[in-house]
Design a protein that fits this description.
- By secondary structure, the chain is an alpha/beta fold.
- Helix content is 25%, strand content 17%.
- The model has no long low-confidence stretch (mean pLDDT 92).
Length: 173
Amino acid sequence: MRKLNALIAGSTGYIGIQLINLLVRHKNINIKYVCGNTSIGKKISFYDKSSKLKNLPKIVKFNKKYLKYVDIIFTALPNGEAQKISKYLFKHNVLIDLAADFRLKKSLEYLRWYKLKHKAKNKIKDSVYALPEIIGKKIKKFNIIGCPGCYPTSVLLPLIPIVKKKLILTNNI
């Protein structure tokens, strides 16, 4: 399998650093771009002294032209920012959002829960809110993946198989 080129937007925050630490160990991922706003020109190892981060590219400001050269875009950005990036995706791109931009199927629900107007309403239909461990290969049908946060993930991973096997009552979940 060929290596997939990845761009990480929001690379210097806690989630971005943790993501990079996972991706550098993945045999099928090549981190092509690490993006930030206030850290341009620095190495990611400035934020995490780990030796495995020394050979990564310097931090650059996100530019939509980079999307042409990557397969996967990870966004570890504040809510609303992945929506902006989603407008520039090519057919070969997959956007994996680690914030809340594509967790809901209706833009009015997004406004209700996050107090922000959704900036990419037409992209919601192209997205799925999912855990790959649960949805399996169906995830490949979507080019935008909204990820649950850590608390929902910690509950959903053990709960969903139990619910599917009808081992518990679901009326009070």
